[in-house]
Design brief:
It is a single chain. The chain is 37% helix and 22% strand. It is an alpha/beta fold and 464 residues long. It has a nine-stranded mixed sheet with strand order 7-8-6-9-10-11-12-13-14, covered by helices on one side. α2 runs parallel beside α8 (161-167) and α7 (133-146) crosses α13. The longest helix is centred in the middle third of the chain and has 16 residues, at 293-308. It is globular and about 65 Å long.
């Protein structure tokens, strides 16, 4: 065996745990699954892709071009159980029958993130959190690109990490990481980890136990060493409490709106201050294009990463001033008759909607609803009383919303049509008001995903 082939074999073994052979089975033929097929094929694996549901035509085309064996609407257990390693797409729970059978046979079941990381020499910045991770990921990537650093962005945003590893060779990867992706890691570790915040979310995947969800988020730091960095929200009580009971090895870099940080980021006289080993960076919060306390925190995390990478202060400042956020997250769509329409479709949980309502400076017509994930709405009530003039419930089942908010406003309506929801808002809103789509719920009752929901909102507003 050549030295090159031996190195490849060692890479495979180190990425997937103890196994011999090169039979790679991929469960799920979405973005991460097809990306893993591309990388697996490049690395010499014998690849088989299996999806319990229907595979989208665009992914079938790619798999056929790769000449990879695939199946849809079934799992051929006999073939799957002969795998040396299995990459499970993040949307597939650990509790499904085929995964349990794989585990019983001690066949490694890992995530795309785990599989791909071993095949790149790039350093990694990993970002996770219940809210703000997409904005923070894009914020950091924007700064790195502006600084001339050869960087790639992947994970839970954009192309799959595996596909990017197969096709590009940056110096740094900026990865948005969901808890589902982190659940499938073994050896993966980022040089810089960012945890934006933790609020209850996806508890149906975690036995309805908050501690299981928190542990999943903290997996981003579990393999870090003393040479690595962990950036986190010091104001988040769940994070602070967990760190007290579960020490980590990496160097902690907290950020806070409330307290001065000796090593980290804080606010002083309406300026963001980042202090790392007595090297200080500062800029006014008013210079940020993104407003709201949550976006200030996202900016603090991004600035801390930038300082750790020793990017010039002027470059950081210019980049932060020019960053305009992400689609479907507090996105100003149009102003019609002096009423601002705002698309916050990415707010799929209560905490995200809390931030959205908190940032409102005018009376607001609020469009809410969708697939409830066990939401508790109590924290929203003071903001609704202060800022919301009318509520439009957009969902298949709106009974819980009426029960929680019926006494908060004079006008509460319901619909199952985005076009009708926007028309209702147009009829209610007065000069100087805002219309905010911030659903606090998943989108799957009426829409394909939150992007589809946001696009339909924008289209309906433009057609007013």
């Amino acid at each position: 065996m050549s030295q090159e082939n031996q190195n490849t074999k060692d890479l495979k073994r180190s990425s997937c745990g103890r196994y011999e052979g090169n039979a790679l089975v991929i469960l799920g033929a979405g973005e991460s699954g097809v990306g893993t097929a591309i990388l697996g094929l490049k690395q010499g694996f014998d690849v088989f892709v299996s999806d319990k549901g229907a595979i989208k035509e665009k992914y079938k085309t790619v798999l056929n071009e790769l000449q990879v064996d695939w199946e849809e609407n079934q799992h051929s257990e006999e073939r799957i159980l002969k795998a040396d390693v299995v990459m499970k797409s993040p949307g597939i729970p650990d509790t499904v029958a085929i995964v349990k059978k794989l585990e019983a046979k001690h066949i490694p079941v890992i995530s795309e993130i785990e599989f791909a990381a071993v095949f790149t020499s790039a350093k990694i910045i990993g970002i996770t959190g219940s809210n703000g991770k997409t904005t923070t990921t894009k914020f950091i990537y924007h700064i790195l690109k502006h600084a001339g650093i050869k960087a790639g962005m992947a994970g839970n945003v954009g192309d799959s990490f595996a596909k990017m590893v197969a096709e590009t060779a940056p110096d740094w990867f900026v990865l948005e990481l969901s808890s589902f992706q982190l659940d499938g890691i073994r050896d993966f570790k980022p040089e810089i980890a960012v945890l934006t915040n933790i609020t209850p979310d996806h508890l149906d995947r975690y036995e309805h136990k908050l501690e299981n969800y928190i542990a999943s988020k903290f997996r981003i730091a579990e393999n870090q060493s003393a040479e690595d960095y962990f950036i986190y929200d010091f104001d988040d009580e769940l994070i602070k409490s967990w760190l007290e009971d579960h020490p980590i090895k990496s160097e902690k870099m907290p950020f806070s709106l409330q307290q001065k940080m000796e090593n980290g980021a804080y606010i002083e006289n309406e300026n963001i201050i980042v202090n790392i080993k007595n090297d200080q960076f500062n800029m006014p919060t008013s210079s940020l294009d993104l407003q709201g306390k949550h976006n200030t925190k996202n900016a603090m995390a991004a600035a801390t990463v930038s300082k750790l990478l020793r990017i010039r202060k002027n470059t950081i400042r210019e980049s932060m001033e020019s960053f305009q956020g992400v689609e479907h997250r507090l996105e100003n769509v149009l102003k019609i008759n002096n009423v601002q329409y705002i698309n916050d479709s990415k707010a799929t949980n209560v905490n995200a909607t809390f931030y959205a309502l908190e940032s409102m400076t005018t009376e607001t017509v609020w469009i809410v609803g969708g697939t409830d994930k066990g939401n508790i709405y109590d924290d929203l009530l003071p903001l609704i009383n202060e800022k919301v003039k009318a509520i439009i419930c957009l969902g298949v089942d709106n009974e819980k919303l009426f029960r929680n908010f019926g006494n908060c406003v004079d006008t509460i309506l319901e619909t199952q049509s985005m076009r009708e929801a926007v028309s209702m808002a147009y009829a209610i809103a007065e000069k100087g008001n805002s219309v905010l789509l911030s659903p606090a719920c998943a989108s799957f009752d009426l829409f394909e995903n939150y992007e589809d929901r946001g696009r339909q909102f924008k289209e309906a507003v433009r057609n007013l």
